[in-house]
Amino acid sequence: MPKFAVVERDYKNVYEKYISYGHLPRKNGLGAHGTHYDITDVHDELVRTNPSRTIDGAEHLSLERARDVANVILVLATVTNGELAWRSYKDMEEKVGLPLADLADGNRNVRVQFADLQAQPRRLLNSPMWSGLTNSGRAYAPFTYNRERMVPWRTLTGRQHLYLDHPLYLEFGEHVPTYKPGPPPAEFADLRFSEKVGPTLELNYLTPHGKWHIHSTYGENERMTTLGRGCDPLWMNETDAESLDIVDNDWVEVHNDNGVVVTRAVVSARIPRGICIQYHSPERTYSIPKSPLRGHKRAGGHNSMTRTRLKVNLMAGGYGQFTFHFNYWGPTGCNRDTQIYVRKLPELVW
């Protein structure tokens, strides 16, 4: 079962706590993905050198300004604080019985803060929180930590395995990799009210992980917008596009019962017929024209046309690697699969 805890709310200080960093990380340490490291001295140094707030007589790191939030994250993270990465590797040495701290020996004095990132891009450090090794200018490659340093995978067996003997997986027939055809388009129930206006094609709409950006990081600068055509385009098959008289870089209007997107089309033979994709995490801060179909209201982004569908067996927990945690082991991107209508945009309105 997930862990349960009683939480007491101090309503008179709700806002103060919202813009402050609590003391539990100092007391309990930090970690994720099975890692752990102590931050007592680093936290106390931050309190001495950074803005702080007093709540009930105790000093807390201030999170009121975005810059202060960024610095707290960077100073307390193993990928940007070499000393904390080293401590985390020492903790993992105790858990797995292998020498690992040498992976951070050369970076113990490295500290990256927000001003450093403003000055120039910086490489992330080795960290046991992640499975890739990046020392000596090496590109990130997943599971190099496990393969080269013999660190067990975080599974019940310590190995990569395909058979999942959890009752929920057995019941759903997913205890081994199994092909399951996609449901008929009507099963998505996302085109019950939408109407075709003019030449229109129905396609399966997918939103894979970001191509030229992720989580809205510097997506609007000149280099990134040049790579992405100044927007977050819709990729579609050349034959599907031809049936609508759409050529590469034309503006298109994509819609269903949930929402609408207006963007440019990338026409590519690499996209199978019958589907279209829009890489996820578009920013709503640039290149969002208005939608003629929705009364010339501002169009949306990739999430506008999706809705969450929960997959029950991904809520399993309390057994081996099955430990439910929202956004990690839990309901995944099954919300990013739906049906849409696409047409050539008749009028571009900003």
Description:
- The chain is of the alpha+beta class.
- The protein has two domains: 11-149, no CATH class; 185-344, Barwin-like endoglucanases (Beta Barrel).
- Helix content is 23%, strand content 14%.
- It has eleven helices and eleven strands.
- It has helices at residues 14-18, 24-28, 40-49, 66-76, 82-96, 114-119, 144-149, 167-171, 185-188, 222-227, 238-243; strands at 20-21, 52-55, 58-62, 201-206, 234-236, 251-255, 260-267, 275-277, 290-291, 297-298, 337-344.
- It has a six-stranded mixed beta barrel with strand order 4-8-5-7-6-11.
- A hairpin with a 2-residue loop joins strand 2 (52-55) and strand 3.
- 25% of the residues are buried.
User: Cα distance, first to last residue?
Assistant: 51 Å
What is the name of the CATH topology of the largest domain?
Barwin-like endoglucanases
Rg result: 24 Å
Strand order of the largest sheet: 4-8-5-7-6-11
Query: Helical region count?
Result: 11
Structure classification: alpha+beta
List unreliable stretches of 5+ residues: none
Q: What share of the residues does DSSP label as strand, in percent?
A: 5-15%
Give the H and E element order.
Answer: HEHHEEHHHHHHEHEHEEEEEE
| Oligomeric organization of the protein chains | single chain
Could you estimate the helical fraction of the residues in percent?
Answer: 10-25%
Question: What CATH first level of the largest domain would be assigned?
Answer: Mainly Beta
Roughly what is the average pLDDT, rounded to an integer?
89
